[in-house]
Amino acid sequence: MPRVVELIADDAIARARTGEVGPEHEAAFAAIDADPNNALVVVERDGEVVGTMQLTVVPGISRGGATRLLVEAVRVDRRLRGQGVGRAMMAWAHAWGVARGCALAQLTSDKRRTDAHRFYRSLGYEQSHEGFKRPLPPR
Q1: Could you give the C-alpha distances from 121 to 18, 66, 127, in angstroms and in order?
Q2: Domains of the chain: residue spans and CATH
Q3: Each residue's pLDDT tens digit, 57-102
Q4: CB 75 within 8 A of CB 7
Q5: Which of 8, 17, 66, 124 has its CA 20 to 30 A from that of 109?
Q6: DSSP 78
Q7: Strands ordered across the beta sheet of 67-76
């Protein structure tokens, strides 16, 4: 878990909202692991975690009841970017979604991550919507 959190928080954009590894991350992983519609994926090279992403299957009513693959927190070790790791991860994610009946893959990316946007467009993703987020109060 520490390496996954480190990869997710490897830039200033994510660092502030991810924080240091703690019990909240362990609880989140346990919840993801217990849910058959979720997967926290890691990529290892020579025994080191070099990539991660979270995949979620989301049933839907729109688009004729299409099930969607939600791809979140895609990160590749900075030293390996541009070497095909992210492309291989996304191909694997798409196959994982198809195997679960997903008809559409979707993701969000911070507006400031222009390199990531180029990468996703190169994979056939279109910037089709404007996204919104709102914090909710704690329970």
Answers
A1: 26, 22, 8
A2: 37-122 (3.40.630.30)
A3: 999 999 999 999 999 999 999 999 999 999 999 999 999 999 999 9
A4: yes
A5: 66
A6: G
A7: 38-45, 48-58, 67-76, 102-107
